[in-house]
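Extended Data, panel c. Modelled sequence:
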Amino acid sequence: MAFINTINPVFGGNMNQLNPTLWRTCRALSGNTRIRLLRQIHEKPGRNVAELAAAVGIGRSDASQELRRLQSRGLLRSSRTGAHLVYRMEADPQVKSAAPLLKALESALSDYPAERDGEICEIAFGLAYPRRIAIAQALLAAPQSDNELGAALRLPGFAVFSHLRILQKSGFARRQNGRCHFQIPAHPLAKALVRLLPPA
């Protein structure tokens, strides 16, 4: 996975306020089946639950549950066509983070092959927990050691180590000279997520 070495160009002008449920959206996007469903909808909008379930090889009830979860995060719109609910990738205007994240997802699904969809899950999982968002915010401010992060965020050492390891795996952090630095993976979703992170 490639990385962007500087964070400044990503922010541009004013940053959006952090949606208090951003980590929940990231958790929804960390599921492989949900990303496969999104790809199917992206490639052929307006499919119903039965068609989507068959396309990804899961049961209708499971597909319906996964689609509702994505819809609850503002990333899908459903409408009724005859006896069926059909889905499209349309942002819910009441969810502030939905539009930029959906734009990033559509970019990734258009530009990258399905074999790289796992990167979406991995990047999203990096920020799929409130404490990891807090650590990311702290590292955005300045590189820090594990002990400094633990003291600033009042986290035990094992928790800091565990969360940093996940942030490293997802591409948001790297270790250098005993300190942890923030970095941005060169992926549309990662850039969009960072824009939604205000300074600590």
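The longest helix spans residues 98-111. This feature is highlighted in the accompanying rendering.
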